[in-house]
Amino acid sequence: MNYQKLDAALATALNDTQDPEEQSLAVFIHTEQNLNSAATAVLESLGVSGVTSGKDIFTATLSANAISQLSEQSWVKYLKRSQQLGLVNKIINRGKLGL
């Protein structure tokens, strides 16, 4: 595993993973701009959808083992954990911002 390509949130989530084969981690995969056919095949074999020429950011839900495999690829720039964000107006509606 190349931890230099992982953001802190993803590295922490990987340490907390119980089953390294379970596809439970939503990630952004940042790659080089022009992927060759071998790189495209690797992404597709891991279940990444929408792999097209000219695209350099992909999203997928992957296992810890798949993330480890991707982190070792030279064409992968970095991997970032995707987290569900809360809506801002929920905070506003509770009066937390003094409105």
Quick structural summary:
The chain has 99 residues and is an alpha+beta fold. It contains four helices and three strands.
What does this protein look like?
- The chain is α+β, with helices and mostly antiparallel strands and 99 residues long.
- Helix content is 32%, strand content 19%.
- The chain contains four helices and three strands; from the N terminus they run H-E-H-E-H-E-H.
- It has a three-stranded antiparallel β-sheet with strand order 2-1-3.
- The longest helix is centred in the N-terminal third of the chain and has 9 residues, at 8-16.
- The radius of gyration is 16 Å and the shape is globular.
- It starts with 7 loop residues before the first helix and ends in a 6-residue tail after the last helix.
- 17% of the residues are buried.
Output the structural class: alpha+beta
Q: Write the H/E string, N to C.
A: HEHEHEH
How many β-strand stretches?
3
- Rounded radius of gyration (Å): 16 Å
The end-to-end span amounts to: 47 Å
Tally of individual helices: 4
| Share of residues in helices | 25-40%
Unreliable residue stretches: none
What overall form do the CA principal axes indicate?
Answer: globular
Question: What percent strand?
Answer: 15-25%
Major sheet: arrangement of strands: 2-1-3
Taking the sheet with the most strands, its summary is:
3 strands, antiparallel
Mean pLDDT: 86
